[in-house]
Amino acid sequence: MNIHASVRAAKTELQRLAREEAYATPLKDFHPGAPRLFQNDTLWPWFERLRKEEPVHYCTNSPIEPYWSVTRYKDIMHVDTNHGIFSSDVSLGGISIRDVPPGYDWPSFIAMDQPRHSGQRKTVSPMFTPDHLDQLAMLIRARTGRVLDALPRNETFDFVDRVAIELTTQMLATLFDFPFEERRKLTRWSDVSTALPKSGIVESAEQRRAEMDECAACFGKLWNERVNAEPSNDLISMMAHNDATRHMDPDNLMGNIVLLIVGGNDTTRNTMSGSVLALNEYPDQYQKLRDNPALIDSIVPEVIRWQTPLAHMRRTALADTELGGKTIRKGDRVVMWYVSGNRDEDGIENPDDFIIDRARPRTHLSFGFGIHRCVGMRLAELQLRIVWEEMLKRFESIEVVGEPKRVYSSFVRGYETLPVRIPA
Ligand code: HEM
């Protein structure tokens, strides 16, 4: 048996054992937010069982506080579009399964309710209009070409570092007009800000605090420069010159900066890596794409669904309410598992398959719905489209030659490394 065959066999065995465990465990003991399920990609049977047997489920036995899991497509839509009942407010715990840790109270507009949310969101949304994205497209294409042209042939390299991180970080530096040579600091701050205690990214809460203080100081300096300069077309200047954000306190500024760094970084980066992995796992789809590059238009939304780079968003109930036959009490944590809704056959046909020419590829939940629906989604789609257009022009194939290392998180669903090779 060659190395690939034995790795595949081990993977299949791992999935079989996960299925056995998921179907043998009583539902009352389910903790679908356990990061290990995401790190070893064994989450699927747990969510499949929840969708079938208890689609609105209350977990009381996790190391974190009790939380509801909403796992079906239509119930997720219900929660995401009822912001009057389901709050995102940071003071109630925020938007991820764990309450924001004490001392980490940087409010950002993703973790605000109306009306404050909309005022702040509007200040940055001009960055993502179709007209402005048209202007950015040439720059994105040129940079993508440069990164791809520098890749080695016939040699194993890490796609995450060389392509996915590099391209998304360059993009972020442009959006912020951040010093280009120091752009990898943005990647680091993004990783640190979302790192869980046992993820290996930071050693302690103190280290995390110290690194994020450095981030705050750096952006504080840029803010002061931009406030005193003429308005320009970058995210910091947009916030510095708009009434809704000009007088933000430093914590709110930091919250919005971290939101935009994480929003623009982890998500697109992991979808890029996910697209290479998906096409390698489904070689018939890769061939279809080579035969018909016009399918890039539909592979982009399909891979965003397939990857679901943000596995969940969380809300807090503002009042008692009924969902899926359960009573959710005021103050309860409610987790919308986009990663599960995107595999719900009542919302999506053949949801477990990666099909690049689906009839309706955009009916996925990965960008959320309602007032917080991703403000950067068109930019993400543009970046993914360009990277595939430029890769198809240059490479006959890009081969995954080893197992990806996945992130230890049930929030960011992504990859630390993905070894690949481009044949000469
Ligand atoms: C494939 C890529 C991306 C995915 C899957 C994604 C996903 C999401 C999701 C799930 C939400 C929350 C939706 C909700 O609560 O209903 C969100 C919000 C947000 N995203 Fe993205 N995102 C992506 C790319 C980006 C990019 C490139 C940026 C910016 C550079 C960005 C910036 C934001 C911001 C600022 C918000 C908060 C919006 C609000 O609260 O009104 N995202 N995104």
State the low-pLDDT regions, or none. none
Give me the Rg, rounded. Answer: 21 Å
Largest β-sheet summary? 5 strands, mixed
Average pLDDT, rounded to a whole number, is 93
Shape, per Cα inertia axes: globular
- Give helix and strand order, one letter per element, not per position: HHHEEHEHHEHHHHHHHHEEEEHHEEEE
Query: Which structural category do the helix and sheet elements fall into?
Result: alpha+beta
Tally of contiguous helical segments:
16
Strand order of the largest sheet: 1-2-8-5-3
Query: Gap between N and C termini, in Å?
Result: 26 Å
Molecules bound to protein: protoporphyrin IX containing FE
Percent of residues in beta strands? 5-15%
How many strands? 12
Helical content stands at 40-55%
Which properties best describe this structure?
5-stranded mixed sheet, alpha+beta, 424 residues, binds protoporphyrin IX containing FE, globular
Task: Summarize the structure in words.
The protein is α+β, with helices and mostly antiparallel strands. The protein contains 16 helices and 12 strands. The strands form 4 sheets. The protein has a 5-stranded mixed beta sheet with strand order 1-2-8-5-3. The chain has a 3-stranded antiparallel beta sheet with strand order 4-12-9. Strands 6-7 form a two-stranded antiparallel ribbon. Helix 8 packs across helix 12, helix 12 packs across helix 14 and helix 12 runs parallel beside helix 16. The longest helix is centred in the middle third of the chain and has 32 residues. It is globular and about 60 Å long. 42% of the residues are buried. The mean pLDDT is 93. It binds protoporphyrin IX containing FE.
